[in-house]
Amino acid sequence: MIDRLGVPHPEVDLILVNGRSVDFSYIVRDSDRISFYPVFEALNISPLVRLRSRPLRKVRFVVDNHLGKLAKYLRLLGFDSLYRNDYHDKALAEISVAERRILLTRDRDLLRRKEITHVYFVQATDPKQQLSEVVGSLDLSGAATPFSRCLRCNDLLEPVAREVVIERLLTRVREGYAIRSAKGKGESTKYKALTDSSNEFQLCPKCQRVYWRGSHYERMRAFVERTLRL
């Protein structure tokens, strides 16, 4: 009955009939008062739910091939978001089920796979709007931990001493600074940010990418704050 109303069953997390939680096997009767709800990732409904053995509590994602920028933005907010551009539908479904990850997709064929229990169909087409939609729909603002995860690898970042990484970074930035200076554009603000002793540095343990609060940081922070004000 729910499927016929146009709502894919994997998006339904709770069904109430006359105030009592039931599963999909319930036979609808005359005068039943039925309500159904999407995923409750931000609320603990475990005392109520009868649809699954347990609700998904840890918010983690697997993102389909068409939502790469969304995956990067979710990582920026600190959410564990698996993404590869060569995942096929079967792999996405298997990862979602095995690792209890919410599948984010714009592929309606994926919604028809009955093994998937947690999925969200992303309506927006612009990546920034997609992020706002997911954060708002799943009420994720309070669970965000911005700037804690590698945008490339998805691993959690680790604090690192400035002395450990500064020479490697300065070499790269000095090369860029020399090019800009030759073009008459003046001193590099990125170079200034790196040499500021008050800066904080983080390292991805997987790809060894270094993160710091450079000239890009304020712009990214403003974007994060706008998104989490939803």
Structural account:
With 230 residues, this protein is an alpha/beta fold. Among the domains are: 84 residues; 71 residues, no CATH class. The protein has 7 helices and 10 strands. The strands form 3 sheets. It has a 4-stranded parallel sheet, with helices on both faces. Strands 2-1-3 form a 3-stranded antiparallel sheet, with no helix packed on it. Helix 1 packs across helix 4 and helix 5 packs antiparallel against helix 6. The longest helix has 21 residues. It is elongated and about 75 Å long. The protein starts with 13 loop residues before the first strand and ends with a helix. About 3% of the residues have low confidence.
Give the SSE map:
Blueprint: E1 14-17, E2 20-22, E3 34-37, E4 60-63, H1 68-76, E5 80-83, H2 89-98, E6 102-105, H3 108-111, E7 119-121, H4 127-137, E8 158-160, H5 162-182, H6 189-195, E9 201-203, E10 210-212, H7 217-228
Helix pairs in contact: 1-4, 5-6
